[in-house]
Known about the structure:
Elements: E1 6-13, E2 23-32, E3 36-45, E4 48-58, E5 60-62, E6 70-72, H1 77-84
Antiparallel strand pairs: 1-4, 2-3, 3-4, 5-6
Amino acid sequence: MAGFPIVDATAKFLGPSRFGDRITIESRIGEWRNKLFLVEHRIINAGRVVVEGHELRVWALRDPTDPEGMKAGPVPAEIRARFER
């Protein structure tokens, strides 16, 4: 494995947060694809969702033909299983 880089990210800002506010950050795997997975995030301030967003990440393997490169590979079943518990 070489990592799991972000290939797309979005955020929708729905309300304010200020320095000193106590916020809650919730993250979960929202979708598994063969070589990709979607991480969903919500930020909650005073009981109100103030940010919703996601990251699309690729499961990256070292490229055997290029020592500097990476290529997408299937997400191992044991990794999925750990998140689905």
